[in-house]
Design goal:
By secondary structure, this protein is of the alpha/beta class. It has 12 helices and 15 strands. It has helices at residues 11-23, 30-43, 54-64, 82-89, 108-117, 136-146, 197-206, 228-258, 287-299, 316-320, 329-337, 349-360; strands spanning 47-51, 72-75, 93-96, 121-127, 149-153, 161-162, 165-166, 173-177, 190-194, 211-212, 216-217, 265-266, 274-275, 281-285, 338-341. A hairpin with a 2-residue loop joins strand 6 and strand 7 (165-166). It starts with 10 loop residues before the first helix and ends in a 5-residue tail after the last helix. It binds pyridoxal-5'-phosphate. The site of pyridoxal-5'-phosphate has 14 residues, from helix 3 and helix 4.
Length: 365
């Protein structure tokens, strides 16, 4: 089966892990600091705080922005549950703004409607979904007008860009995940980026029990630290990330061309000014066909996935909190139609042909 995700582990990863194990500095250590600096530099941010996973990165980013109980944070409904959960961790209230059905990202027009209606929105948490940057011109314009803190969930968008800047460098803080299936990985891992020295200092306390200096605990903190082992993998992966991204982009464009004449699926678009890094290559198909289509692909040896089949506010826990279905119709429709195909850099020419032939030979019921 050609899988949707494939964690790449090569000689360099093994070599650096061995160095860490041999040094016995398996918890914190110098690889963490090195990884923080190189990832922050790559992404165009001043500071990077490596931590346990993308979820802790989001929580840390929100705390660094001063999100407190009772605050309102606007976000997209169409993302991994960790996005909205991180708002709940702060005791704050997620408010959902619908997506643009073309890009799957938060729609700036819908965002402004919410900002006009809801008083005292403290922050906006955007998600660069599937590796495609949000419309940053529109969002930064709204930020100026409505004066909210901007936080980026860039967990799927390592190396993605808008105009000359990289995803994760636009807001007060941003969060990345290095989970096994992301475009680069450390097993579990994450990083929070910021350009603000004070926020960086506080973020470092958040991930380390609120510690200041040697043994003084001056704020509430957690153990969200990244291990030296994970950081060693991250260093090796970051060296290869650009090459992998280029392969993902090339694979996606081969698909887009091969599927251009098919009218039963809708292929992904790349808006002007955006660098889409194709964490997922996501197409749409009629809801009544999706299950059959995926089963057909599987029979031909092609794996596929659904990201995500339920908007976050329709999850049982969010329903208990009082959120009602129908809030964001575009996101709910996307959740019924999306299917992601394998696009990762380890696909062979043969694999790509297999995927194309499988999709092209599908017959609608
Ligand atoms: C993966 C992901 C997360 C969470 O990251 P973990 O490392 O799994 O905690 C958050 N948001 C989005 C959009 C993600 O894709």
């Amino acid at each position: 089966m050609i899988s949707v995700a494939y964690p790449i582990i090569e000689k360099r990863e093994r070599q650096l892990i061995k160095e860490v194990l041999d040094s016995r500095m398996v918890a914190s250590g110098k690889y963490v600091a090195e990884f923080e600096q190189s990832f922050a530099k790559y992404s165009g941010a001043k500071f990077g705080i490596a931590n346990a996973n993308g979820t802790t990165s989001l929580h840390t980013a929100l705390l660094m922005c001063g999100i407190k109980p009772g605050d309102k944070v606007v976000t997209t409904p169409f993302s991994f549950i960790a996005t909205a959960n991180s708002i709940l961790f702060c005791g704050a209230k997620p408010v959902f703004a619908d997506i643009d059905p073309e890009t799957y990202n938060i729609d700036p027009v819908e965002l402004e409607k919410i900002l006009k209606k809801e008083k005292n929105v403290k922050a906006v948490l955007i998600v660069h979904l599937y590796g495609l940057s949000c419309d940053m011109d529109a969002i930064l314009k709204l930020k100026k007008k409505y004066k909210f803190k901007l936080i980026e969930d860039a967990c799927q968008a390592h190396g993605a860009g808008f105009k000359k800047k990289k995803a994760g460098s636009f807001g007060e803080a941003s969060a990345f995940s290095f989970y096994a299936t992301k475009n680069m990985m450390t097993g579990e891992g994450g990083i929070t980026l910021t350009n603000d020295a004070k926020m960086d200092k506080y973020g470092r306390q958040v991930i380390n029990h609120g510690r200041e200096g040697h043994s003084s605990h001056t704020v509430l903190g957690y153990n969200y630290r990244m291990t030296n082992i994970a950081a060693a993998i991250g260093i090796a992966q970051l060296e290869k990330l650009e090459g992998w991204i280029k392969k993902r982009i090339a694979n996606a464009s081969v698909y887009n061309e091969a599927f251009a004449d098919l009218d039963f699926i809708k292929t992904p678009i790349v808006p002007k000014n955006c660098r889409h890094v194709f964490h997922q290559y996501t197409i749409r198909i009629k809801p009544s066909e999706r299950e059959k289509f995926m089963k057909y692909l599987a029979d031909k040896g092609v794996g596929s996935g659904i990201y995500y089949n339920c908007v976050m506010y329709n999850q049982p826990y969010y329903k208990k909190l009082g959120y009602k279905a129908g809030l964001c119709p575009q996101a709910e429709q996307a959740a019924k139609e999306v299917v992601s195909l394998p696009v990762h850099p380890m696909l062979s020419k043969e694999d790509i042909k297999t995927v194309i032939n499988a999709v092209r030979s599908y017959k609608l019921s």
